[in-house]
Hints:
By secondary structure, the protein is an alpha/beta fold. The protein has 9 helices and 10 strands. The strands form 2 sheets. The protein has an 8-stranded mixed sheet with strand order 3-2-1-4-8-6-9-7, with helices on both faces. It has a two-stranded antiparallel ribbon with strand order 5-10. The protein is globular, with a radius of gyration of 20 Å.
Amino acid sequence: MTDYRAPIALFVYNRPSHTRATLEALARNEGAEESTLLVFADGPGENTSEQNLKRIDDVRQIVLGTKWCGSVELIPSPTNKGLASSIRDGITSVLTEHDRVIVLEDDLQTSRGFLRYMNDALTCYASENRVFQVSGFMVKTPIWAPRSGFLRVSTSWGWATWSRAWSCYRNDAENLLEEVSRKGRAEFDLDGSSFHFDELRRNVEGELNTWAVRWYASIFLNDGLCLYPGKSLVRNIGFDGSGSHCLKDTNNVQRKLSLANRVAVKRRPVVEDPALLWAMQKYYRQLLKTWTATRLRDRVRKKLVKTYSRLVS
C-alpha cells in the first residue's frame, strides 16, 4: 500500500543509552533504509553541568555515528528549548516541506513493522479529514479487538500526522480548556476514566507544559479521531527515572509489553471502536490512581511552601 515514505522526526536530548536503543530498533524496521531521519537535538540550558554537556554531546555523536536510515540529518539546538517547544517547532518545520511526518522520542522502541504500518496508514487515510493521527502504541486489548480501529484520544508514543491535521494544533491552553469544558469534560476524559482535563488545567495554571494534551484538545474540538493498532508496535523504555516526564516504573510494565511484528492496514469506517475504547478506559483508570496521588502530593507540597514563606517573611 505504501507509495511514499514519510520523513521521521526523532527528538533527543541527553540520554545516550535510550537514544541508541531507539535508533537500533528503528534501523531494524522494514523500510528504514528508504526513509529520511531528521533528528532534533535539544541543547544545554544555563549553568548546565559538565556531565550533562557530555551526555548531550554523546547523544549527538551516536546519531551521527551510524547510517540508521536511508539518510540522517542532525538538527541541533544551541540552547535548551524544552521538550514541548522542541516537538512543536520540529513538527511544524517538517510539515512546511512535507505533507506528513512520523514522530518518535528518544525512549521509544519500535517493532520491525512499525514504519510499514505508519506509512500504510498515512497513505490509506491521507484524504480522510476526520482522521488526525496514526498511533503506533496501544495498550493491551481484549481478544475480540479489531486489528486496527479509532479512538478520540491521542498518544505521544510513536505517532504520525499530516500537515492538514497539524494545522489545527492550538497552543493556547486557556482557550482550549474553556472550549473543552463547554463541549464536555466527561467525554474529553474518556467518559470519566482519565485525567486529561485536569492535565490541561495544570497547563493553564503553569504547573505543567505539555504539548500532547494540547494536541489532544485540538483534535477533540475538531471531532477528530486517531487510528490505533489492535496490538502495540511501540514500547516506552524511558520509565526508569531518567527523563523529565517519565517516572520510574518499578513493575517494568512497559518494558514487558509484547509488540506486534506487523499490523496490516485495511480501511475501516471512521468511528470510535468500542473494544479499543474499553481497553483504553481500563488503562487510564489504573493510571488515574497514580495521577490522583501525585496531585495530592503536589497540593500538600505547595501548601507547605506557602505556609513556610509566610512564617519567614
